[in-house]
Specification:
This protein has 237 residues and is mainly alpha-helical. It has one domain. Helices cover 77% and strands 0% of the residues. It is built from 9 helices and no strands. The radius of gyration is 20 Å and the shape is elongated.
């Protein structure tokens, strides 16, 4: 049985991750409005927790959880390509997978705190508790930017060393990593949320690249395990 559909599925998971992430957060935003964050004064936090959460909040959070589960599939697909290019002695591709899983865990934790806060909304929540939930959500989300920067920097290093993917994916990963580190240093700035959009854009473009290169990856993986590709021309990029 051909492994090619599974390789395409791993790449498609990255595209679905971005789509569900934007749709899910868009539904949450439409249902709640702007969520309170680290820069919000107490009066805005009180207003954010004043009314019970609509059904759309839970639908959006559910889609957000699905999105990050799909990111785990994409991370495995990406790290497999990088590991094949690095060789058996390479360790950075393994670190890419590990940092990707850590990013997912922290992101799900942040979503969990959002859910706890929205569950308490409309029930006379104390402003102090509302502030704690808001700071935990925003603080953990800011930490995810640092973990994502590590994920991207490791990926950039492998790509630029081995050309496992087009070089633009490596340079853009490195530039995005630097931007995310700066955003993590100033999470309350107005530019931080804008910088955060760079990561899903990189994931989307890289996933599309992996999807288009699935035939190449398939032949290379089969060759690595001793099977010969049916047509030598398939190995050309």
């Amino acid at each position: 049985m051909s492994d090619q559909p599974w390789l395409r599925l791993g790449a498609a998971a990255g595209i679905l991750h971005v789509v569900l992430q934007f749709v899910g957060f868009g539904i949450v935003g439409a249902s709640v409005g702007a969520l309170a964050d680290l820069s919000s004064p107490d009066r805005e936090i009180v207003r954010a927790f004043e009314h019970p959460s609509a059904t759309g909040v839970w639908v959006g959070l559910y889609l957000g959880v699905l999105a990050f589960l799909l990111f785990a599939v994409f991370t495995a697909r990406l790290s497999t390509t990088l590991r094949r290019a690095e060789g058996d002695a390479g360790w950075m591709s393994t670190a890419v997978f590990g940092s990707g899983i850590l990013y997912i865990a922290l992101s799900l934790m942040s979503l969990g705190f959002i859910g706890v806060g929205r569950r308490a909304a409309g029930h006379g929540i104390d402003v102090g508790l509302a502030r704690v939930l808001t700071d935990l959500t925003s603080g953990i989300h800011a930490i995810t930017w640092g973990v994502a920067a590590l994920f991207l920097m490791l990926t950039a290093t492998v790509v630029l060393r081995t050309r496992a993917l087009p070089r633009w994916t490596g340079w853009s990963a490195g530039a995005t990593a630097v931007a995310l580190l700066l955003a993590m240093a100033a999470p309350a700035s107005e530019l931080a949320p804008i910088v955060a959009f760079l990561l899903p854009l990189w994931v989307l473009s890289t996933a599309i690249t992996l999807l288009r290169r699935s035939d190449v990856a398939y032949c290379a993986v089969r060759s690595e395990y001793g099977a010969q590709p049916s047509a030598p021309a398939q190995l050309r990029t």
